[in-house]
Amino acid sequence: MTPPKPSATFHPMAQKSDYPIRCPKCGHEQTVSLYDAIDVKAEPALRTQLMENKLNSVTCVACGFSFRVDKNLVYSDPTRKLLIFWVPTSEDNFALGEEQFVSMLRDLSGLLPDDVHAPTVHLVFTRVELIERIFLIEAELDERLVEYIKYSLYTRNAERIAPEQKLLLFNATDSTPEHLCFVVQDAQTRQFEAMLQYSRDAYTALVETFESGEKSADLLELFPGPYISARALLLRERSEPERPAQ
Ligand SMILES: [Zn+2]
């Protein structure tokens, strides 16, 4: 027997749950109510909190220390039909993080009525990626094309921007009508070190190139998802042994 299916479409409203949280400074444990999901259309203030690094922040009742708790979070913006899953994952566990995400999505799809397709979802592993993806979608850019651009920026600047040490991030604030702006961040120190520009005309040309069926399949093959990241792709390519020559 199939379980009854909910009639409503998938729509994660703001949800909070209680968690036992230990203070990293004094070790005191307290129960804290933290967000599992936020809907920024229903509650725009939660988007602001996230951007200001105040979402899911905790102040220890014993010592007064404030800290942020990084936990699974679903970011929903129904206006843009946008769903981003943030699953905090360390770099050496990306493959596992993707697997867990796919199985979670499978469970989720099982709850949807047959005539409803699962919404397009994004998977990110860090808070920085979450913020970047929000800005990218709000700027109406395609995440696969942006990662494709990053891939070529990494490759063209191989001396200066080694994917092992450097992150490339889309920067909405400094982007202009003429240029998309990317910043280079050191993976260890988190320092921003340089800024790269990519012309919007070149982006538009890429959109046109990849609109054709064959080319768009190439892009999907390069970034099948669910985790779409030029840096992760480059690191994977480098860790794989060379394929034997034909
Ligand atoms: Zn404390």
Mean pLDDT: 88
Distance between the termini: 52 Å
Helix content, binned percent: 25-40%
Order of helices and strands: EEHEEEEHEHHEEEHHH
Distinct helical segment count:
7
Low-pLDDT ranges: 1-10
Small ligands present: zinc ion
Classify the beta-strand content into a percent band.
15-25%
Which radius of gyration do the C-alpha atoms yield?
Answer: 20 Å
Q: So what's the overall shape? A: globular
Oligomer: single chain
Structural class: alpha+beta
The tally of domains stands at 2
Extended strand count: 10
Largest β sheet strand count, sense and barrel closure = 5 strands, mixed
Strand order of the largest sheet: 1-2-5-6-7
What features would you describe in this structure?
With 246 residues, this protein is of the alpha+beta class. The chain folds into two domains: 9-138, no CATH class; 140-235, no CATH class. The protein has helices spanning 44-51, 94-110, 127-138, 143-156, 200-211, 213-222, 230-239; strands at 15-22, 29-39, 57-59, 66-68, 73-77, 82-86, 121-124, 166-171, 179-186, 192-199. The strands form three sheets. The protein has a five-stranded mixed beta sheet with strand order 1-2-5-6-7, covered by helices on one side. A three-stranded antiparallel beta sheet has the order 8-9-10. It starts with 14 loop residues before the first strand and ends in a 7-residue tail after the last helix. Mean pLDDT is 88; it is low at 1-10. Zinc ion is lined by residues 23, 25-26, 28, 60, 62-63, 65.
